[in-house]
Amino acid sequence: MSNDGTIPIALTIAGSDSGGGAGIQADLKTFSALGVYGASVITALTAQNTQGVTGIHDTPPEFITAQIDAVFSDLDVAAVKIGMVSRPAAIAAIVDGLKRWEPTRVVLDPVMVATSGDRLLAPEAIDLLRTRLIPLAQVITPNLPEAAALLELPMATTDAEIARQGEKLLAFGCPAVLIKGGHGEGAESVDYLLTANSRIRLAAPRTRTKNTHGTGCSLSSAIAAGLARGESLEAAVRGAKAYVSAAIAAADRLNVGKGHGPIHHFYAFERGTAVAP
Fold first, then answer.
1. Could you tell me if 74 and 46 are in contact, meaning their C-beta atoms sit under 8 angstroms apart?
2. In what order do the strands lie in the sheet with 176-179?
3. Alpha carbon distance, N-terminus to C-terminus of the chain
4. What is the pTM of this model?
């Protein structure tokens, strides 16, 4: 919160996870943990828990539009995170809304498959994601399988392959790409932040846990929180990486569900020390 009492505002445009571990719910938890006020536009309802997705009910595109206009017409939105957009009509509504309100700090997490393996993005929506939505983002945050799917290539397994895929993703029109290495192997989980002029390697110890539900959603919303607070993209990404790594490390202290449980968004508050904004 600033000295004059105002709080930075971030907006998440994503699907709802009825189990509370990912999607809108994870985004709002992340915003709160990082000292940012969260608003939301719900693109879909999912019937979901830690074991999988059993149903998706898409929000009508005109109601996505209504939510976007309601938020931007009243709130001073400093950053936007976009997550699950499963249908072409939803993407079109979001694209039109972004062009109408012109936010400059947009983080796009191209959510294609849930942690459980359930597909969340219709195949016919992928081309619209590439050609219309990605060019409006400041940064996109695909994991290794999502980067490969967007490019219709095998999943990268080496630093050189990741760099080449990052360069190809930049050609879609976004100024920065964060390729997440959580699906890789080794003692470290390594992410790569790539721009036209730089490649930054971000490593953290790999935590062995099945409780990783909502990791990607939380990372992208943590980046948006940093941007909303006025941080540079690199600083926001580094802070988000540190936050999510700690939340994964603390995940086994929670006992939620029978499958892939959530990460611990409020681990710092459990210790009695809030995450400093």
1. no
2. 52-58, 37-49, 9-17, 79-82, 106-108, 139-140, 176-179, 188-195, 199-205
3. 8
4. 0.93
* pLDDT tens string 209-227: 889 899 999 999 999 999 9
By C-alpha distance, which of 20, 110, 13, 130 is closest to 61?
Answer: 13
- Each residue's pLDDT tens digit, 34-53: 999 999 999 999 999 999 88
Number of Cβ within a 10 Å radius of residue 199:
13
What the block records as the tokens of 151 is: 């490019």
Residue in this structure with the two tokens 């190809």, named with its chain if needed: 168
Q: Is 134 left (phi over 0), alpha (psi -120 to 50) or beta?
A: alpha
Per the structure block, which two tokens stand in for 99?
A: 């062009």
Domains (ranges, CATH) in the chain? 9-265 (3.40.1190.20)
Tell me the C-alpha to C-alpha distance, in Å, between residue 233 and each of 30, 79, 200, 227: 17, 12, 12, 7
Distance from C-alpha of 45 to C-alpha of 225, rounded to nearest angstrom = 23
Positions marked catalytic? 180, 212, 214-217
| Inter-residue contact 62 to 50 (CB < 8 Å) | no
Contact 117, 263 (CB under 8 A): no
